Amino acid sequence: MSDGEPLIRWQWIGDHAAELADYTGIHLRLGLLPVLFGLIISVPLGILCHRYRWLYPPVLTVANILYSIPSLALFMIFVRYTGLTERTVMIPLTIYTLSVLVPNVVDGLASVPEPVRLAATAMGFGAIRRVVQVELPIAVPVVIAGVRVAAVSSISLVAVGQLIGQGGLGYYITRGLQLDFPTPIITAIVLIMLLALATDALLVLAQRLLTPWSRNKVTAS
Amino acid sequence: MIRFDAVSKNYPNGTTAVDELSLELAEGGLTVLVGPSGCGKTTTLRMVNRMVEPTAGTVSLRGQDIREVNAPELRRGIGYVIQHAGLFPHRTILDNIATVPLLLGWSRKKARARAAELLELVGLPSEMAKRYPNQLSGGQQQRVGVARALGADPPVLLMDEPFSAVDPIVRAELQAEFIRLQKELHKTIVFVTHDIDEAIKLGDKIAVFRTGGKLAQFDTPERLLADPADDFVADFVGHDRGIRRLSFVNAADVPLRDGPVLAATSPVASARTGDEPWVLVVDDGRRPLGWAAVADLPESGTLADVPLAPLGHTFSLVGDSARAALDSALLSPARLAVGVDAHGAVVGVADAHELSAGTGGTADATRADGGKR
Amino acid sequence: MNDFLNQIRLVGDWLTSSKQWHGDDGIPHRLLEHLTYSGLSLLFAAVIGLTLGLLVGHTGRGAFAVASVANLARAVPTFGLVVLVVTLAGLSTTPVLVALVALAVPPILINTFEGVRGVDPATRDAARGVGMTEWEVLARVEVPMALPLILLGLRVAAIQVVATATVAAYPGLGGLGRFIVDGLSRNDYELVIGGSTVVVVLALVVQVAFTALRRAVVSPGLRVSPSKS
């Protein structure tokens, strides 16, 4: 950083407000769609793992191993197939969410009290209806706790995608380095954190609305 | 042995857990602290090993103010058993039991040898030594909890609802074993429970607490049942205390009558002479064989040829309590208790009504040891 | 499928070419750099995170602060932080290491804290009741019981450090990320995918190492499922 350069030039932020808003939108899409896809995969997978316990350890091991692969390396492996596109960022991010979401779906289903399960069966719920109408709703708080972790990590990881040209607000991070100019980097970091925390807050709210019966209880964190 | 001198425990939020408690617990005796939730019984117990520090007053152990002893050191000399056993899940059963000896600096070998001894003492098979707590049933865990408390052979044992987390059958089993153990070990035991039956079954003396941490009565079980200090205690010991008290009345004091007793060799006709619906058939040593229903008797022959209804239980005039006599009456098909002497010969019979009427006035009846321990 | 086989062949060629095994640009040197960054930051982070986590977990004081820090830390874009540090402090190892440590502390801290906090109060009560000093309660009961979570925290931190150290090649640091970043700027796909493979292998080794560590140090009593309840 050149001498005399202030940490933040507010002027720059004002000048780039519209552009920042565009990139924020892209960033949200890149960060949150993977969580949605992750959920679409994890719910049925979690139900299967809950039902067939032998399936759970191998699934969890694979998810954990995939999670341990650094994002940069995983992006590069997909570049070959999906090019320098948004998909190349979103597929690895989707894969990462599984290591949080699958266990939380399984734990959530396991948190359904046995008497409730038995009562539902005794009242004549079929296996699928019981899962959908009784067990999943009860599992919602635990599942959302997982979604919160996945969403926050996903949003903050998007920035790495800038190394293949698809990083949302990460654009300003590389830009700042190239220009030796900290303002865009700091702005990007702060915006990314705000996005993550706002998403987290919205998910807490969503959980309250979805599970009015647990409103007076402490939510899982 | 353990002495509470005007001990109070107040919390900053204004609640009083224990209020001006003065109490002296005898050496080698089992004192039960009993009362409803929030009566301060557990707080009182926990003040003995300084898990809770009193706000006023002194607790002393063998004449020494316990505040003069470093808390961990004090605790290593006092056994401690709690409701869910509180075993260390990451340690094997043997190492759980060896905890205190190891804390005291015994060698691992010596501590484990001691632990193996204790495992046997509490009636667990030695192959359990290598297992972990969550591989054991609740009752087994509780036995390990007792064994762990006995680790360094402490003279004092504190037990906080040790048997209340297990089912009634296991609880009765644990209580019986515990009584056997205490007979052997003669520890000074402070035992907290909310269950008055347990208190009466186990205690040499019982301290009844009322809400707000006040001692309502401190007495022997017999006195507590016969002469409750006030309405609270009377209510707490229950409306059926009359029946409970029978446990403390000797069976020998039960009024018996001769009743319809006939030898097996008697002709059937002799059974019909009385107006009793059942006759007790005995052998030539007057030992009871069973009951014969008069209405079902054949036209002729002797009572030996008649099918007999089982006796149920008899009670012995030597060693049994009046409570056993009552059970005997309730379980008999004829609704009559059969009392036998030391040789098993029938002395007489009584029905439930006669039993309670006949023993009701004897508040200071002698203790029936056989019925209790 | 064919393409996949091609890719494997590509990686094979790259890995076996002798120039990858010598000099400053060789795999051994880059791997050593990577392990040094990751190892050092993990070590410092562990010292800080474990100490604080045990302290807060045992005393229960500062629990809210710990939870907030952990929540906030998860939202920090690690890539941005590393780039910012380099922009502000210039390209040298120490500032980047400090950033890596800062990122690795929260998962260790929160998991250690939760592990200790999660010890059944009855067990803790029993530990004090049998005469353990506070130190003994911590060392003989709380730490062994918290080990599964402590190891989880260390594993998450290690994974994050290894990944972030890879990204740190972008602003100019060494390590395995160099292959990927250099390959990208030179349009040398062989280099990119070869470097990625080495990174993946390292990640797997870390994962396996923690699984083995868990097997070795966590008491079987904490693993076995209750046979009766």
TrEMBL record, chain A:
UniProtKB keywords: Membrane, Transmembrane, Transmembrane helix, Transport
Pfam family, one: BPD_transp_1
Gene3D superfamilies registered for this protein in UniProt: MetI-like (1.10.3720.10)
Membrane topology (UniProt): Multi-pass membrane protein
InterPro entries the UniProt entry points to: ABC_transp_perm/SBD (IPR051204), MetI-like (IPR000515), MetI-like_sf (IPR035906)
Top-rank taxon: Bacteria
Transmembrane regions listed in the UniProt entry: 30-48, 54-79, 138-165, 185-206
GO biological process terms on file: glycine betaine transport; transmembrane transport
Subcellular locations according to the entry: Cell membrane; Membrane
GO annotation, cellular component aspect: plasma membrane
Ranges of residues in domain ABC transmembrane type-1: 24-203
Stated family: Belongs to the binding-protein-dependent transport system permease family.
Protein name, as recorded: ABC transporter permease
TrEMBL record, chain B:
Key words, A-Z: ATP-binding, Nucleotide-binding, Transport
Record-linked Gene3D superfamilies: P-loop containing nucleotide triphosphate hydrolases
Enzyme class, UniProt record, top EC level: translocase
GO molecular function terms attached to this record: ABC-type quaternary ammonium compound transporting activity; ATP binding; ATP hydrolysis activity
Record-listed E.C. numbers: 7.6.2.9
One Pfam entry name: ABC_tran
All copies of domain ABC transporter, residue ranges: 2-237
Name this protein carries in UniProt: ABC-type quaternary amine transporter
Species the sequence originates in: Streptomyces lacrimifluminis
UniProtKB/TrEMBL annotation, chain C:
Compartments, as annotated in UniProt: Cell membrane; Membrane
Full protein name: ABC transporter permease
Biological process per Gene Ontology, one example term: glycine betaine transport
Record organism: Streptomyces lacrimifluminis
Homology family: Belongs to the binding-protein-dependent transport system permease family.
Membrane disposition: Multi-pass membrane protein
Regions that span the bilayer: 40-59, 79-105, 149-171, 191-213
InterPro entries assigned to the protein according to its UniProt record, in alphabetical order: ABC_transp_perm/SBD (IPR051204), MetI-like (IPR000515), MetI-like_sf (IPR035906)
Gene Ontology cellular component annotations, sorted alphabetically: plasma membrane
Keyword entries, A-Z: Membrane, Transmembrane, Transmembrane helix, Transport
Family matches, as CDD domains: TM_PBP2 (cd06261)
Residue ranges occupied by any ABC transmembrane type-1 domain in the UniProt entry: 31-210
